[in-house]
Amino acid sequence: MDGVSFDVEPGEIFGIVGESGCGKSATCRSILRLFGGADARISGGEVLLEGRGDLLAMSERDLGEIRGKDVAFIFQDPLTTLNPTMRVGRQIAEVIERHSKVSRRDARSMALELLRDVHVTSPERRLDAWPHELSGGLRQRIVIAMALALRPRLIIADEPTTALDVTVQEQILRLLLERRQETGTAIILVTHDLGVVSEVCDRVAVMYGGRLVEVGTTDEVLDRPRHPYTRALLAALPSLAMRGQALTPIEGAPPSLISPPSGCRFAARCPWAEDNCRIGPPPPLERHDSAGLGHVDACLLEC
Amino acid sequence: MALLELHEVSRHFTLPRSILDMVTGQPAAMLQAVRDVTLSVAAGETIGIVGESGCGKSTLARVVAGLQPPDAGKVVFDGEVIDGPDRRGRIQMVFQDPYSSLNPRMTVGALLNEVVARYRKDLSRNERRQEVADTLRRVGLLPDMAEKFPHALSGGQRQRVSIARALCPEPRILVADEPVSALDASVQAQVINLFQRLSVEQGITIIFISHDMQVIRHLCSRVAVMYLGEVVELQATEDLFARPMHPYTRGLIDAVPDVKRRGKGDRRPVTGEMPDPFLQIDGCRFAGRCPDVGSRCAERQNLRTLADSISVRCWKAGRITEALESTSAQKERPKENGND
What residues of chain B, 195 to 254, have a C-beta less than 8 Å from chain A? Predict the structure, then answer.
């Protein structure tokens, strides 16, 4: 990822959308420096959390305090998040115990309350269930309950519904919307699915080749897309095309992030690209004259 | 006449019994993956089979391709009962994951040549090479792709190679099991377009299996919706999306996130979760999640033909249409009188 800047308001659902390898997961992992042993380095920039300052400048120990308490993370695959050798109730209780002084018994009743909040059926029984005994949807509900346990101000959800069936996905998205309403937590939702963005996000950032290419309200970006990549992505969707009509795929392949091209990273696949687009540093996010308020894009051309 | 017909096809799997089960005399747990599926596919049509994980759509695909025998019912292809993979390769499968379905040690050319050599024994070595190049062109790839190994290809190219391999025996039917699910949206569009071209320009019959309602809607002329091993609804695509008859279809359509609808409108997505597939359910398999359960839902439901080309496995469904039809008929009647 390269030069990514955005801000998230309290209580807002902010989407980051892009295809595989565009850097959307790296972006949200950078916020909490969660790289799981990978040799990743953040070479510059700041992550500012209201009242806490720059998370990137913080020691690992101080950041440990923030993780879970101020900012919680939900991963795509609930099975890898949950400890397979621990009953789910204990896992939720442990999160609570780690950050606040409560008895085991109180932690357990708080865990029960959280399971009720995420609408797990027969929650008393589920407290003593093992992760492998639960369905994918139930597991993701447990993970959400864990994320909510410490009343974080921000939840980062990385493809939280990608591994789920569509009816279960709908239930989980509705749950996230409802919990946001109840607790006022902000959510960064990372997804590859513009449909998911359209259903739940207030604002959305479109990412390509490690950079943000467009940011705006969901309605602005989906109804009046500005960047050629956003337009191309929408044109490739079967849901917006007429039946029987050919879809418009994006020719070519995404750029190498090991040695990225100069200029706009989408230029090589862009039907409107001019010579200017291929030289110099990548264009920054700017508001163009005809764009709506708060709608910025990183295209040199006014089209 | 239909090119392919499935008559009451069923397929179940049994789990191995544990020692405890054997001692206590428990029967083996049985999973009814496909139950009583009757379906007829016309030559040249693209039919979609849609459903969520565990609904039996992949098992059905394997039964159609002859990779798995049904344990009840029969599959009739071109007038003959299928009892294994077709010897002339007239039914071919395309799998979801082109990474695991292509041998990483063979070049694309060798992969395709192997299939051509097997089914087209009359061809000389040069003719075979020509055939491989032609097939690559048919799927929108350049003939020099033949020299490459699968790892050097992008996901979209790889899936096109899998489709090229399936085309080598000149099949009548392509059975595609989630062929675009592993692909990014921009690449997915290429492969969807390719299937459309194969259907329109080359008249290949396509059985397209997917969990993605949007892709199915775009590509298929008819759709069968599966739930827990059964086809619960079968309709022409436009009608299915405009007037879903089965409550599951309705809830499934409402659950799909849609860029066009953008969270608005009156939606009633399916609630609850898929029951344990090992449970024996004698009545309607959807009753536990259905918003509109009635007295006869505990009885076994049959796939009933309501009108031309509409089949539904719900005893209530017809009543609603009949009611609608009778009201619209009443509205039309005065007009007819006037004409007389």
Answer: 196, 211, 213-215, 217-219, 237-238, 251-252, 254
CA distances from A251 to B94, B129, B198, B277, B328 (A): 23, 27, 20, 42, 49
Burial class of residue B321 in the structure, from the number of CB atoms within 10 Å of its CB (0-12 exposed, 13-18 middle, 19+ buried): middle
Q: Any idea what the CATH number is for the domain that residue A91 is in?
A: 3.40.50.300
Tell me which residue of B191, B178, B201, B170 sits closest to B44, measured CA to CA.
Answer: B201
Burial of B326 (0-12, 13-18, 19+ CB in 10 A): exposed
Min distance B290 CA to chain A CA atoms (Å): 13
On whether both A125 and A35 belong to a single domain, the answer is: yes
* Of A146, A172, A201, the domain-final residue: A201
Comparing CB atoms, the residue among A19, A195, A238 nearest residue B257 is A195
For residue B308, give how far its alpha carbon lies from the nearest alpha carbon of chain A (Å): 22
Q: What is the DSSP string of A118-162?
A: TT-SSHHHHTT--GGGS-HHHHHHHHHHHHHTT--SEEEEESTTT
Contact A135 B274 (CB under 8 A): yes
ipTM, two decimals, is: 0.87
Reported as a single tens digit per residue, the pLDDT across B176-233 is 999 999 899 888 999 999 999 999 999 999 999 999 999 999 999 999 999 999 999 9
pLDDT at residue number B113: 96
**Predicted confidence band of residue A281 (pLDDT cuts 50, 70, 90):** very high
pLDDT at B18: 78
- Report the topology of domain B4-339: Rossmann fold (3.40.50)
Same domain, A190 and A235: no
CB contact under 8 A, B185 and A236: yes
pLDDT tens digits, residue range A91-139? 999 999 988 889 999 999 999 999 999 999 889 999 999 999 998 889 9
What does pLDDT average to over chain A? 92
Chain B hits for A207, CB-CB cut-off 8 Å, are: none
By C-alpha distance, which of B244, B176, B190, B180 is closest to B212?
B180
Task: Compute the distance between CA of residue B335 and CA of residue B256 in angstroms, rounded to an integer.
Answer: 41
Domain-located, residue A280: yes
Between chains, do B189 and A218 touch, taking CB under 8 Å as contact? no
A173 chain-B contacts, CB cut-off 8 A: 257
